# Entry
Amino acid sequence: MYSKCGKIDIARKVFDGMDRRDIVSCNAMIDGYGIHGLGKEALLLFNKMKGVGLEPDAVTFICLLSSCSHSGLVTEGKQLFNYMIQGPNIVPKMDHYICMVDLLGRSGLLDEACKFIDEMPFEPDVHVWGALLAACRIYKNVALGEEVSKKIQMLEPEGTGNFVLLSNMYSTVSRWDDAANVRIMQRDQGFKKSAGCSWVEINGITHAFFGGDRSHPQSEQINKIIDELLVEMTR
# Structure
């Protein structure tokens, strides 16, 4: 919670104050470092974790690879991935490959990311291609981005994320007509970008909240508390 609210120092104090640290708490702390681009700190914690005999699990490597991705630690990310696949306990899953494509893509290694995808032991899903498409937008590789977009469209013809990424890529290179045409195509095919949604369970009752939604009977009180929390977080 503290990590996601931007209070990484407090999160570490809570972590250090725990009587017993298990793999779940370590993963949460590593993930927190990754969220804030503190990849080296995440790696230090990983090494300390191994030093006290805690064995990493599949989630640990997802958190670590994501941390490397957000910190530009390409070499370290590759080493972690190789360490994982050579070990006896963890079989890499799609999420691990997505993290690696994201790592390579964010660092501008688009050709290497394509080669990595080609060598995957199973067929890449829309999330793998989506990570590559996002990198194409960042590095303005429109030709590759268009190819990737077609693959996503074939795998998920009713998805909206592909339209958004493709339109944003065209906008990045000032191809405004192409960006507008993608939006028109999205509209004509009846697709809408889904509103963000969050859930919380209180006393066994699940409450759903959508972006900009004020239909909840306690929306006024909820927004007041959110405003108070935002003030507290910025102190």
Observations:
- The longest strand covers residues 197-202.
